[in-house]
Specification:
heterodimer; A: mainly alpha; two-stranded antiparallel sheet; 22 helices; 4 strands; globular; B: 311 residues; 18 strands
Chain lengths: 555, 311
Amino acid sequence: MADATIGPPATAARPALFLRNATGLVKSWSTFDAFVYSFWSINLITLGLYGMSYVYTVPDGQLLAGILLFGVLVTFLVITYAMLVSVMPRTGGDYAWQSRVLGGGLGFVLSITGWWFTLFLWAPIYANILVVQFFSPLAYTLGSTGIATFFTSQTGIFVSCLIVLAFVSIVVTLGMETYARIQKICFWIGLVGLAVVCLLLLVYSQTDFQNAFNREATSLFGAPANAYQATIDAGSKTFGGSDFGHFAFGPILLLLPWLAFYLLWPNWGATLYGEVRGAKDIRKPFWSMFAGLWVTVAMVAIVVLLINKTIGWNFYQSANAAYWNNLFAVQGAVAPPVPIWPYPVMFAGFLVDNHLFQALLIIVMGLWFFGWAGTLFLSSTRVIFAAAFDRVLPSWAANISAKRRVPYGALVLMIVPSVVISAIYAYKPDFTSVFLDATAVLALTFLATTVAAVILPWRRKDLYDASPIASYKIAGVPTISIVGVITGLFLLFMLYQWSFNPDNLYGTSLQKTPNSVIYFVATYVVAIVIYVIARVVRNRQGIDLRRIHHEIPVE
Amino acid sequence: MTRIFFATDLHGSELCWKKFLNAAKFYDAEVLICGGDMTGKAIVPIVSENGHYTVALGGEEQAVAADQVSEVEANIRRKGYYPLRMSVERLHELDQNPAKRAECFQEVMLQGVERWMNMAAEKFRGSSIRCFVCPGNDDEMEVDDVVRRAEMVELGEGRVVEIDGFSMISTGWSNPTPWKTHREDSEEQLAERIEAMAAQVPDPSRAIFNLHCPPYRSGLDEAPAIDADMKLMHGGRALRPVGSTAVREAIERHQPLISLHGHIHESKGAVKIGKTLSINPGSAYEEGMLMGAIIQLDPKKGIKSYQLVNG
């Protein structure tokens, strides 16, 4: 039954296409819905404030300029990924693209280390964010000091990891439809909370904040008078101070690896696009990721300017330096008078002399965590599915329970190692550097995908020529290759800094962090071993893994 | 040992059909099974005017010289659409007259299937390769007659066929969809349709259920949720099981050796339902990629191996 006409092109008043009634012909998805997912992936409150609390290590780096530069550079990553989604909207994202372009073995090793093994490390990071942005400030504000200090103990850290893993498992069990609804509620209420934070920081002066901070430091934490200055003094033991107005290009570049902690992930949902009809239209994935990135960049810029105006830049950075350097036992560091992570939301709440309001603000802003954290393993489960369907992993890894549709195989593969890693994080502080490397390994996975994108037009000419982006060229060179090269150089710069920065600025330099090197080399070795075993075992079963991606000749 | 290659939901992609035919040699398969939804979803008019042709593909209208039209037509077929040369008057007639449009659609679809059947005949004439086609819910009923007449392709719909000691039943009918396509049954009717064939299978442990619609809540039937306006919900990430309960019950009751499905392109996978291995190889026909499954059947052991491939 023919029942529809599509078109016309802009210049002609006539149809370009006749459609008949057929399964799957739907209207495209809302770019706003996809934007919300991308926006959450580069969460400016959870990841953003947490990541930016480390930028005191680059005191001459002008943060606002660094954020804008990062936004520009990540835009090339967004274009690269949007184009890949358009050519191959495959479930599994990085794994599928790398496997199909670079080869099955290389694709498996590079993507599985990033999207599977490294995600174990993110569970404790998420847990730490939950503690410093939710449990601790809320407990202190409500006068439950015992609960607050419990979460700083080793057992408390481990328990917080288990809470995160339980939450993530529940979200995966609920399914994305339910979680998408939760995300939207968290999105709107969280935005209201952020507006309140910004309003408070806008209408009050720095003097008001100093008075409020001193009042609450004594009231909630029992700190002596003038805790504001005492915090700056504590920071000054290991930190030379920071001037927000200072501008130098070199230090701005050194900020980039810190900013990657939260701004490198607008493409987080790319592993899911195989399930999205309409993903082949490059505009949808591009605009959803691009808007997620730049709305966040704009919001971060506003928050940073307000912190500078009301909280005071030197105070904020001194507080961060005092907190982290004391925690990491940096030589000469002393404990700050307010013994918790400098949470700008809590600081903004101090401006209202009412603990109930302050607690409510922390709870509302906590929705930025709960609307975001649920996707921790979502992409990983998709990558595991893709590897299982390719028979590289056992088929049970892709099993889904019939009753509740829980991907229990993939969940077990994520949760069990995450519990072990969480225990190491909680009880073996020597391994801290391993967790700092969590961003770098994912960046390496992205780099491999970028290489796949650069060579795609030649390596998989068939797919490229049939794709909507085949006509996108600059001076005769495929656009995907050009943006891929720019993205690759950007990622290589950060990987170099993470691995070889002579001052170990990011706590991840290879020479200074042997535990980290051992861990990550081990993950690559394990990935290679899994692939080799799969090849041998499947070969015995009469399955040649090499032919999974071999194209059938047409003629 | 029998090696089967199964692919489905080609939706008019001539490139995928050519790959499907070549898969026999490429994967050393003795049996090819096309699981349904062979026909395309759209006609792309190539309009003759002022001594040249105009065509809009991908939203961009372009003028094409007469000697380039064949190339454009091949490109359109590659994507799974039907190219159709026409005058401006014919274009307006089809635009304004749904009945004429439906008639035109059927004509080009059947011509397309006929051409595919001829390709198969040329490819397999004189060989021992068996090629089965079972039209799916998107294929009009008249497609069956074209397949039935084919020299080297066997129609699967509604039949129990013997494949090297294994029995295969096939149907392209599905449970109701929001699109009200050509072969849709209520779950009860679908159950009866399947049961009528399954009852004739002598040994379910040596049976292949080639059922276009995947079993409900199997993980092979997860489609993006849509609202009443056919708009994808939650950025297309909200997935719902849309498979058939009748298909699931048939699999659970008879426990065939293997069940082959399609219908939901995004829901590629292989799962166990009791003793049955259920496979949906997925579909990426628009990219010209043939997603399929290679299954090796052992006369004694049943399934020796299976593999999902992207050819």
